[in-house]
Amino acid sequence: MKMWIYIVRRILLLVPVIIGVMTITFMLTSALPTQYRLISAFGESKYGYTPQVDCSRLGLNQTGQCPNPTYYRDIHILGLDQPIPVQWAKYVYNSLTLNWSYTSGQGPAAGIVGHSSIPVTEAFSWYLPYTLELAALSLLIILALAIPIGNYSAVYRNRPIDQGARVLSFSGFALPGFILAFLLLLGATMLAGGFTPQCNNLSTPYFQFYGSWPVQACFPNQVIPSWIGHNYQTSPTGFPTIDALIHGQYWLAGDTLFRMLLPAFVIAYGSIAGILRYVRNSMLEVLNLDFVRTARAKGAPESTVIRRHAGRNSLNVTITVLGLVFAGFIGGFPVIELVFGLKGVGLMLAYSVQPPYDYGIIFGSTLLFTIIVVTANIIVDILYAYLDPRVRLG
Known about the structure:
With 394 residues, this protein is mainly α. The protein is built from 16 helices and no strands. It has helices at 3-30, 34-42, 55-58, 70-78, 84-96, 110-113, 120-155, 160-174, 177-191, 240-246, 250-287, 290-297, 302-330, 333-340, 345-352, 359-387. Helix 9 crosses helix 11.
């Protein structure tokens, strides 16, 4: 089977997964009172009542009168007066067209999103680049540490490096990420003698390990450059580190990466523990295969045998597990971003699940993380098929 046919097949097979997640979120949304569904779809500011008033049952507002006529019109627009299958079809259509409702404009999430109702997709566009950069850095740390340590652990089995790898693996499983995050943040604060000053001396580079971006005082004359827009959304790419490099603000790019080092390490630490064991076991299995013995019998150097013959073949299992690990550490982003004060989608989700709940962000984040995980699995499947062409024949 050709590679492009295999890719198309994998994409088509993942469509039911996305539809399934949309169906689950629709069922959860349907359990909410009508008032919450209207606020989530159109925004809190459109209605004169608060979420504590059950207008879906009483049909009354706070003064005991009928609500604004737009209340019933919006019920019809959402299809809430239609049968369940029709409501489900409209929900799936809105999800596929990125019409993910509005933020409530209230509660803790409003502190970073804003106190007025805005489209959820617009709020995600502000902070998703921060989360993606953090995910990419975490993935690089995993690949840079787990694969070499796992391979060396297999090659030097039962030696000190193997024993050290076991300690690293067991500690990664046993130590919760949020505890490690607090310990690292506390240790960094003590070593720095407290939090870094707020750019009192602009002649020296500014680096801080907490928060997403420097304060306004960090810029010359306290004027934020024009390429940094609302809520520190950057242009032209939207990724702060890349945009800082494009505009020649190397100190700002370094500051952004420095802030992500600790949280990226915390996210990667637990994943390294799992992948390291898979890499080690896979490498041990490959080293005992016939083609490796043949290469050694022909007189090939041990480094060549490990790097060219055993190394690539041992990556098959590792690549497969990497997709599952990616899905796992994406789920830890809300806690880690909350601990380190990183303004990403994870922080938005962490605030939105605190009363009063922001249902638009909650359900929008569910769909967003589903798309990210599904995309990661497609990439993993393609890499696996590239490394082992036999997969394409199945």
